[in-house]
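Hi there. Long-time user, first ticket. I'm pasting a complex I've been working with (about 317 residues overall). I'd like to know whether the download I got is complete or cut off, because the file seemed smaller than I expected. Thanks.
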Amino acid sequence: MIPDLIDAPVAAQPSWNGRVNNDRTSIQAPRDRDAQLMLRVRDGDPGSFALLLERHRAPVLHFLYRMVQNEAVAEELTQEVFLRVFKSRGNYEATAKFTTWIFRIATHLALNWIRDGRSEKSQTSLDEETANGASRQVPDRHRTVEQELVHQAKLREVREAIDGLPAKQRAAVMMHKYREMEYAQIAGAIGCSESAVRSLLFRAYEALRARLAHMA
Amino acid sequence: MGCPLGLDESGELAVGYTARSLDPRAQAAFEHHLKSCGACGEVVAAQRAVWEALDEWRFVVHGPVSALAGRISRIGRPGSLAASVCRPIKSRIVGTKLRLS
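Hi, the file is complete. Here it is re-exported in full:
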């Protein structure tokens, strides 16, 4: 079973490695809403699935895009995530946080895709314009051409540094950095222990510091 | 207070401090410690560079979800679900702004 963060005890004393966890209400509300929506999906309400899709599609797509670094593949895998959610609706029980569940599916799909070596065949160049405009880097109108070139060079370096991480480390960093997920939730999504998540993040950030510290 | 870096085997301290995810008292205590510890300062500076570099990677997503609706329809669901799912979605990453100043 995926650990439930909501019921985890909150540390009474601060510690060097304590993380802020004092706003239980703000965490609980989305969990309840998602769970309720999913229970309605289970009971045959199509509108609730559309709402879940609207709430979670973009975060899942962003995560998968950063994992596989290919728009078309990320879109395809995102569809697969929600298709699996939909197919599993009959067996759904609100025993775990919904976000953890869908990120567990997304991580599983991404790791399988990377493991199968398909990333080497379909890497999208940063310079390549997309045909369908599914996703693009955010343009900054305040940048000069020269600043934009510098930005693109930095971005390429970041992407290469991320791409150089082992897949599980990459997944842990993406969830920690961009989704601000707690260690227990990341552990639930990756399917490992919290101590393993700590180790993954330690090694990942150590590697990233070695590659990106000069960008300060 | 002694330097905590040697005890911080998992590296959570520098990462948590940079992400501002430490317990507030631990955040303040480490910030105070940084004023007198060059070793910790170097690690934090490097981690901050990583954090800021990762912040560069933002993008927008515009995309129809009609393909998903089609796949759901193929597994035998009512058209109303496909219609619900087909609503266009437009989103933008905004949640990774730099939180250190």
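A couple of notes from our side: The longest helix of chain A spans residues 46-68. The two ends of chain A are 41 Å apart (CA to CA).
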